[in-house]
Amino acid sequence: MDKSIKEILWNQFGASIDMLINVISNSPDDYFITHKRFYYIAFHSTIFLDYYLTIPPSDFSPILSFTQKEPEERPKEAIDDLIPDKIYSKQEIVAYLQQSREKCKQIVHSLTDEKLKERFKEGDEANDMDFPILEILLYNLRHTQHHAAQLNMLLRQDIDKHSEWSFRVGDIKSEVIK
């Protein structure tokens, strides 16, 4: 795979992850804990960033544990069926995102023409994902950016706070983003 394409992919995917880390790490501590919708979006984004980077997905072993719950068992603020087993701190969420950021960087930089022939395949059910590696990476990038934008919108609406935009990976200068 062409080196410049890998650099472009990492510049954009890394920027998306940086924006997610930035919005979570810069949310006020009390807001992070008390605003449950913000918390559940942050948790969901963190888990799925790692999940979509796990090839094959059957090898997924999350750092932060959760339980899948039926609709009637879920908190109303939850955005899916993955409910954290405890309320994780902002620092735990950010640390997990940093690990996933490094995992993503390694995956992107190790892409080869041969690796691109592999697939992200969940199973054989009708709604299971079965994507080429490049497509799951782009899907994951879009998913990450979508939720970073939601979190930014919540902060802006609720407490009139905004986070930085990142054109490329490394644009946001923060001790939290390594």
TrEMBL record:
Domain DinB-like, first and last residues per copy: 77-151
One protein family per Pfam: DinB_2
Protein's name according to its UniProt entry: DinB family protein
Record lineage: Bacteria, Pseudomonadati, Bacteroidota, Cytophagia, Cytophagales
Gene3D superfamilies, alphabetized: dinb family like domain
